[in-house]
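yo, Thymidine kinase is done. seq:
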Amino acid sequence: MFIEPSLAGGRRGWIEVICGSMFSGKTEELIRRLKRARIANLKVEIFKPAVDTRYDEMNIVSHDENSIRSTPIENSQQILLLAQEVDVVAIDEAQFFDAELPNVCDQLALRGIRVIIAGLDMDFAGNPFGPMPALLAKGEYITKLHAICVKCGHIANFSYRKSQTKDTLLLGEKDLYEPRCRHCYYEEQ
Ligand SMILES: Nc1ncnc2c1ncn2[C@@H]1O[C@H](COP(=O)(O)OP(=O)(O)O)[C@@H](O)[C@H]1O
Ligand SMILES: Cc1cn([C@H]2C[C@H](O)[C@@H](COP(=O)(O)O)O2)c(=O)[nH]c1=O
Ligand SMILES: [Zn+2]
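structure:
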């Protein structure tokens, strides 16, 4: 479990990244950290890409229906304008953002803000997803979570797509994706 380096006192910014496959618990972990920050009376702003309308247009919702209020935005530059006077900035589904997001996070961290990112490290094809590789390179604290492979029960780090659609962006849940381990993922590629 991730233990915060500091919850109160001293404005030192940094970047935390929570990554992994679908169903690995990224959103639950993000919500857990944000609830703790609020308990510590920190001012928190939560963003998600407007394109992510899967469960809800405003809220961030986990597969187990835990949810927290967020602001949907079109591009990463909006975060710099909207995150004024805050202690913590959280961004869910970071893989869908533009290539400027890592620079935006750098600027926030330099302002003294704790930045918490959650996102898919790999797309359905097993390739690094959007700005996630750069965020993983820049982050001080990285948490890689694993789901359970639906085929064999080992740890899963791949998001297997059950449809033939080749577009990178395809919103969905168990209807379209299943978490798989390396062995079971490549068995059917
Ligand atoms: N195959 C699976 N492996 C692990 N968790 C699963 C699986 N299928 C469903 N879940 C549920 O998904 C939850 C995680 O949801 P969530 O935090 O939204 O994940 P993520 O944001 O990484 O997609 C788990 O707590 C569990 O209840
Ligand atoms: C692998 C993959 C996923 N997506 C979509 C499917 C879901 O709507 C989100 C991921 O949500 P989660 O919180 O991580 O479960 O991303 C996609 O568009 N393309 C992909 O390759
Ligand atoms: Zn497996």
